[in-house]
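Dissemination and training. As part of the outreach component of the grant, students in the summer workshop were shown how a complex can be specified as a set of sequence lines and then modelled as a single object. The example used during the hands-on session is reproduced here so that future cohorts can follow it. Participants entered these lines:
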Amino acid sequence: MILTLARKDLHTLFTAPSTWMMLALLQFILGWFFMARLDDYLQIQTQLAQMDNAPGATISIASPLANLLALLLLMLTPLFSMRLIAEERRNQTWLLLSTSPLSSTQIVLGKFAGLLALLSLVILASVVMMSLLALGTQADIGLILCNLLGLWLLAAAYAALGLYFSAMSRQPVVAAFTALAVSVTLWLLDMADGLLRELSPNMHFQNLNSGLLSSADIVYFVLFCTFFLMLTIHHLRRERGGH
Amino acid sequence: MSAPTTLSAKNLVRFHGNHRVVDAVSFELHRGEVLGLLGHNGAGKSTTLMMLSGALQPNSGSVEVCDFDLGKRPDLGKACLGFLPEHPPLYRDMRVDDQLRFAARLHKVAKAQLLDYLELSKRRCGLLDHGHRLIGELSKGFQQRVGIAQAIIHQPAVVILDEPTVGLDPSQIRDIRELIRELGDNSSVILSTHLLHEVEQLCDRAVILREGRCIFYGSLDELREQSDIESGFMRLNAKTEGAQA
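and obtained this result:
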C-alpha cells in the first residue's frame, strides 16, 4: 500500500515538466561546478605534490560538490514537496486517499517514500559524477560513500519537513515558501553557538561531508525525520476530527 | 426489511467550530437497496457522506459498514466502501486505466483479480474504449463515469454517490441514472441529491435532512402518503420550521 502510493507520487512528479526542468538545471549546475573544481585542482596539482599531507582529489572536488548539492537540495526540495499533499487538496483528489483503507501513517510514509525516491535519483547522479574521479586518480571511496549517506539523510530531513508544511497548507506555493523559510532558518542556525547550532541539519551534514561518520549525526537525522513525519500524521488525524 | 444491513449510522453528530452541522442522524442501509439522502444545499448532506465514507470522524455517534466500526477498524470498513464525492477525485494527467488500477490497489484488490475488476467496472460505466485516454481530455460526463468506475472498482458492498448528476447535460444525466439503477442490483447505494424527482426515480427509501437534522426516514410510499411527494417534502420542511419557531 505504501509502495503503491510512493510509485504513484513518483510517477506524478516525473510527468510534471517542471520536475524535468529543475532536474536538468540541477545537473547543469553540478556538472559545471564539477568541471570547474577539476580544472582548478589540475592547475594547482603540481604545487600540492610538494606539500606534506596534501589534500587529495576527492576532498578537493567531491566534498565541495556534495556541499553545493546540499545547498541546492535545501532550495529544491520544497518545490517538490509542496505538491505532495497541498496539491492533492487543491485538486480535490485528497478524498480518494482519505476514503481509501490507507491509514494516515501509510499515506504519510507513502508520500515521503515517493519524494525520497526522486531525491535519491538526484543524489545518485551526483555520486556517479564524483565516482568519475576514480578514472583518473585513486578516489577516496569511503569519503564518497560518507557524502552519499550525508546527502541522503539531509534529503530525507528536508523531505519530511516539506511534507509537513504541505499537509498544513491548501496552497502548494504557500507550502513551498513556508518549508523554504524554515529550512533556511535551520541552515542559518549553523552559524549560531551552543545548543542552537546542534539543531541545524547543515552542521550535522558538515561532519559527514568531511568524512567524519558519527552515530550522533545519524541519530539526529533519524529523529528529525521521525519528528516531522509524526507531526504530519498527527495533523492529518486531527483534521479527520477523531484522535 | 429482511435483507442484511450493510451500513448503519447511529446518532451522528459533527460540529464545524461551534456550529452543529449534523445533529443526531441515524439510519440503516440494506443489501440491494438505493437510499436517497435528500436535502437543500447546506442541509448537511455532504458532511454526513464524509462521515459515512470515513473521510471525517463524527464528534459523536458511529458508522458501521459490513459490521466493521469505521472508528475502530477503518481499514476493513473502508475496504467495503466506494465513494464518489461531488467533485470526482481524479488525476487529470493520468490515463483512465492507470487511475482505475491505482484506485484498485489502494482498495487492496488482489493482483490476480485486478484485470477482471478493471474490465468489469469499465464495462459497467461504458468506458471500454476510453482506457488509454487522459482524464483531463475527457468531457465532464465521462469524468463522472470514471469517478463512478473508480468507486466500484473493488466491487464494494456499499457505494456512496454525492450529487452524481450535477452539472451534466440531460443525456449524460439519463446515462448516469441508468448506471445507478444497475449498481443498486449488486450493491447498496446511498445517493445524495437535492432533486426530489431523482429520489423518486431511483430510490427505495429516503432520508431527508434539514439544517443537519433528519426530518424524514422511511420508504417513498410513506413519503407519498403525505399527499404527493413534493408537497410532502415541502410540508416536512415547513413542519420542522414551525416546531423550531
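The mean pLDDT of chain B is 87. Students were then asked to discuss how this feature might be tested experimentally.
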